[in-house]
Structure formats: C-alpha cells, structure tokens
Amino acid sequence: MHPALHLVGVDCASCGSSFTLRSTATALAVDVCASCHPAYTGVERASAAGTRVDRFNRRRSLAA
Fold first, then answer.
1. Band (58; pLDDT cuts 50, 70, 90)
2. Which of 8, 33, 49, 55, by CA, is between 20 and 30 Å from 16?
3. Domain segments of the chain: what residues?
C-alpha cells in the first residue's frame, strides 16, 4: 500500500516565499528555497569563487 499524499504549503524562512507541493508530510518549512538560493539565482559571492580559482591556479603553477 502506498502512503497517502497531501497538498502541503511550504514556507521559506529566508525570503518568505511560499508554494505548494504534494508530500507525505503534513507541513514543511525550509531554510533556503530555489527562489533565494545563490546556486539557482546566479547571484554568488564573487570573492569566494575568485579565491578558489586563484588557489587552484597557484597550486597548478607550482606543480608545473
């Protein structure tokens, strides 16, 4: 027997958006949703990404 699915309202704690989906749970709350997550919105911190690339290039040049 399959579990019963319910229409559930999901609330995002970061941006305050809400949406509905089907789930076996009765209520859901998330910290970060697709509307405000940096990987999905394309708004990432440039300093963190640049630092990793710089570290990689520095290690690569030392290995050569």
1. confident
2. 49
3. 6-63
